[in-house]
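[step 3/7] inverse_fold.run input=structure_tokens len=519
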């Protein structure tokens, strides 16, 4: 082996001489006057990696609005899945206002909390949508009221329309004075009640969708074709709804439907689209963007908006069909093709209304596609350190400089910052030293680029001399606990990755000093 280099062989890790020479070239040319380096090329794995802030979602709620009228019990939404949904990392929770507040000021969170508590201990995150306008029905189903009766009784004015299920529905008159004087204050109270329970540091709720206009959860009046007096009035009203959410929530990230409204011919430019739906307000506050209609409902300015904003705002791809409809009707592409479209959309999240019965069927019939969504090239992010290097021997009290080269293999981003944490442990994994590189920020990393970095760690002078295992992790920022699975071998039970070894030499005091501490 060339002088001045130590090649780590942690576990099965072996680099070819040619690759090794490329990585170690500068040190080799320097000769023996420089410290020996340890260079590691971690072996990548190809297995599915379910991770936070990405991947497939299951579904929960008291009923599947529009799809059918069947009530879903807490058991249907929890134990009814039959397992812990290990390849699904989040839950889309749809809940209607009428169920949450059947009487004015009397909230019923029991079932909602039970569903969240069940999946939270199974390490799921949550995307929440409160249905607070109307349900237009879907695919022959009539839909159901979602607003509590008491809010209509207060004098909220409404209009009627025939929904997708060919049943007459009513929706608020958004431009009427009663919407501002009656509806919006009561909506604010509902959101404040939810915020009091869940808008806290460490909340499992990663997104709350802004709702309060339109049919379903779409921020669009597809069937009623609601006409505002002017686009300026529409913008002001929709921006006002959005601002209520913005003012109420400090920890839960908000998201908004990015799709067009019923009148796309009026959107002559992308900016028209954004202004018409007050998406300019949402984007100014870095909302996530959700698109329904995968695979057959995307058009107009949708792709332009996605291409413009996906690098800064997470993308959620929602199928407008549940799995049963998708595979039974054979007119919405295959399940695999739906995934392909979501991948071209740089989606971090996707789902197709996987309620408990549908989930079981999909896992029997489409496990290969679901796994592909979590393999390299799949949904969200997949962080891989291509190489790491450090001095093979470092005195206690000195700096440990870790050079790295990273890639993101998948189509989305890890949009929530997870700093790099380095550990020195004994061979059994007992921690002797750890430190977080607070400057480490992977939130802008996209597929197809390499990201060379240098992290600097401060070894305590009290660190005992000896040989230590070097382990790394991408940690949750507030707790410092490992949270992100990496696409490499070497993970331990704590979620840390062993990447090699280091020799710690005795502390010898600051340079130029005879005594310690320096006078």
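[step 3/7] decode complete -> sequence:
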């Amino acid at each position: 082996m060339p002088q001045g280099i130590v090649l780590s062989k942690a576990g099965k890790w072996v680099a070819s001489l040619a690759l090794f020479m490329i990585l170690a070239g500068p040190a080799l040319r320097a000769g023996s006057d420089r410290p020996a380096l340890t260079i590691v090329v971690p072996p990548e794995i190809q297995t599915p990696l379910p991770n936070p802030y990405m991947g497939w979602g299951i579904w929960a709620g008291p009923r599947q609005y529009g799809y059918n009228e069947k009530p879903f019990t807490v058991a249907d939404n929890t134990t009814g899945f039959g397992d812990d949904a290990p390849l699904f990392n989040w839950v889309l929770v749809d809940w209607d206002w009428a169920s949450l507040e059947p009487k004015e000021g009397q909230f019923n969170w029991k079932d909602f909390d039970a569903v969240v508590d069940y999946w939270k201990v199974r390490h799921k995150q949550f995307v929440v949508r409160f249905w607070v306008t109307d349900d237009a029905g879907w695919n022959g189903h009539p839909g159901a009221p979602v607003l509590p009766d008491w809010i209509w009784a207060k004098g909220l004015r409404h209009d009627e329309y025939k929904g997708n299920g060919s049943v007459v529905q009513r929706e608020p008159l958004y431009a009427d004075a009663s919407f501002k004087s009656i509806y919006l204050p009561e909506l604010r109270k509902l959101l404040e009640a939810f915020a009091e329970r869940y808008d806290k540091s460490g909340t499992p709720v990663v997104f709350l969708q802004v709702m309060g206009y339109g049919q379903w959860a779409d921020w669009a009046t597809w069937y009623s074709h609601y006409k505002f007096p002017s686009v300026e009035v529409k913008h002001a009203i929709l921006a006002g709804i959005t601002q209520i959410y913005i003012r109420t929530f400090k920890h839960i990230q908000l998201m908004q439907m990015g799709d067009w409204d019923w009148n796309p011919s009026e959107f002559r430019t992308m900016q028209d689209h954004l202004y018409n739906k007050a998406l300019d307000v949402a984007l100014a506050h870095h909302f996530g963007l959700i698109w329904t209609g995968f695979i057959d409902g995307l058009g107009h300015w949708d792709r332009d908006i996605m291409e413009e904003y996906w690098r800064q705002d997470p993308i959620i791809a929602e199928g407008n069909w549940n799995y049963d409809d998708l595979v039974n009707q054979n007119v919405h592409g295959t399940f695999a093709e739906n995934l392909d479209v979501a991948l071209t959309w740089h989606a971090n999240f996707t789902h197709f209304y996987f309620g408990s019965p549908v989930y079981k069927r999909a896992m029997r019939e489409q496990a290969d596609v679901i796994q592909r969504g979590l393999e390299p090239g799949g949904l969200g992010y997949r962080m891989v350190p291509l190489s790491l290097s450090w001095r093979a021997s470092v005195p206690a009290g000195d700096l440990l400089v870790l050079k790295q080269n990273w890639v993101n293999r998948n189509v989305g981003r890890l949009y929530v910052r997870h700093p790099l944490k380095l550990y020195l442990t004994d061979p059994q994994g007992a921690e002797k030293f750890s430190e977080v590189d607070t400057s480490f920020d992977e939130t802008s990393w996209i597929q197809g680029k390499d990201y060379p970095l240098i992290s600097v760690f401060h070894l305590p002078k009290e660190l005992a001399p000896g040989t230590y295992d070097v382990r790394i992790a991408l940690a949750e920022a507030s707790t410092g606990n490992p949270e992100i699975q990496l696409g490499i071998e070497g993970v331990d039970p704590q979620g840390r990755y062993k990447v090699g070894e280091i020799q710690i030499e005795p502390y010898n005091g600051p340079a130029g000093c005879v005594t310690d501490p320096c006078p």
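[step 4/7] annotate
The domain at 5-46+390-505 is CATH 2.60.40.10 (Immunoglobulin-like).
Confidence is low (pLDDT under 50) at residues 1-6, 9-31.
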